[in-house]
Amino acid sequence: MTRYRTAALGLGVLLALLLLLTRFGLYSLRTDTVAVDLGFEASQSARAQAFDEALLSALERGHFSTELRRRLNRPVRTARVQRFWADTCEVRQIDFERFARRQEKQAPGDAPLFSSSSGHRVAGLLQSPASGVDYAGAAAYCKAAGGRLPWAEEWEAMAVGREGRLYPWGDTFTTEAWPYQDSHRNASQPCGTHPAAASPEGVQDLANNVMEWSRGQRLARSLEPRPGAHGAPAVRASARALYALSAAWLKIEPETRSHHLGFRCVYEQPPAASLAWGAEPQAVEIPGGEYPLGVPQDLRLARVAVLLPTAQQSKARSLVGRDQAQRIRVSRCEVSRRDYREFMDHPLVRFGLFANEHEPRWQDYTPQNWAQQLEAPDLPVTGVNWWAADAFARWAGGRLPRVEEWQLLAAGADANPYPWGDRYEAGSAATGDQPEPGLHPCGTAARDHSADGVYDLAGNVSEWTLSLTAEGGDYAAWVQGGNWLLPGRTTARSVFGRPVPLNHRSESIGFRVVYE
């Protein structure tokens, strides 16, 4: 009897030792990991810091609208612009109405040109900008004046200048040009009411008063570029520092009419001093040359904010700040089938000693098509649900990454839209747009690695995270990153993710482990 007790005691001690050793993470001591300092490195420019604070405030307060996301989705680039002349002021209501009446007399059978703000009943000021004019009406006016509507590149060039200003007047936002609570009054002020809002070249009211029509992007692939609306809409009282950014413009339908949308004309040559309907345009020369367009490189947070899922926007501040306090150690590669087999073979796993305390009973950690997966043991494991991934991480002495950590791993210190940089190219990662889509061994994708040396964040398999959500009333976990079945241009982005039910299993979802 004593012999059996001794054997039982010895077995108990052995199991306890195994448990203790495993809790200390023997697996983690020999897996390939890399230490990463999380967070975007703060920009050294004062203008970027001020803009980022305005952006964070908008995100936290729920003011980062779909419209803002579209406006700010303007990657930085350089465009060559030919010399042109631009109206100093937006076309006035009285001038457009005189033009429209003249056109009606000359061609009574044509479709009438009109402004839905005719007589400027909103403010009673005919000296205020012409508004309520659709694209065709604005284009007809400029053509009759000897000019045309500006291309989007030209409009942005006169707003940013050669030096790449954030706003037409400089790099610091000012609220001076929006003095009224009534948005209609802010959109109907006579030209030059706020000289401080003019560009250094003397172009007035580019960011304030009414928004302005453009012809759209000249470099667009479409033969019929979609028109754009530039400048901050007066009706937006919140996040105005973001709307007023010179690069923040919006493609709109040509039939649009709004009390907050007007236009100005540009010319290949200086315009006539007086037009047939009595208008007297004043224009300034905009020099030709190379102009920096799009959201500037130093506005790092803006580059990521436009890609951030709406459900995660309120936590955007956690993405800022890179220091030692936010250092983590993470597996360089996604967990392989070889690694997972070791987990499955461990005796303590069978006793459920690594199960999450909330895990439903009778969970089976066996991946889908497990026998077939083991034929290629160096590929990432797939077909495991969240409970299995969580249990593996506990067994390994670590945990799954939180969604914010995963996004920071992918974006890096420079807040890159993709783990490797700014642009996506076919072949960058193991995604569904490959000629022969499929899983790859870790580190074999051409560009899919972060500056810190973490592999396959954009493709191969999407990855479970520790972050849970209750969207739709059911618990789900955030799954981050693209995979070998999805097109990569959108899903390979550093912040791409979606909630997936905890029990879901997929041939395109795996995971990696973080160690404290």
Structural account:
The radius of gyration is 30 Å and the shape is elongated. The chain has helices spanning 2-23, 26-30, 46-60, 66-72, 93-106, 135-144, 152-160, 183-186, 240-243, 300-305, 337-345, 347-350, 370-373, 386-395, 403-411, 488-491, and strands at 33-37, 77-81, 84-87, 211-214, 228-230, 250-251, 261-262, 266-267, 283-286, 289-293, 327-331, 462-469, 476-480, 497-501, 509-510, 514-515. The model is unreliable at 20-26 (pLDDT under 50). Strand 12 and strand 13 form a beta hairpin. The strands form 5 sheets. A 4-stranded mixed beta sheet has the order 6-5-4-7. With 516 residues, the protein is of the alpha+beta class. It contains 16 helices and 16 strands.
Key phrases:
4-stranded mixed sheet, alpha+beta, 16 helices, about 525 residues, elongated, 16 strands
Radius of gyration: 30 Å
Biggest β-sheet: strands ordered side by side in the sheet: 6-5-4-7
How many runs of DSSP E, i.e. beta strands?
16
**Helical segment tally?**
16
Dominant shape: elongated
Helix content: 25-40%
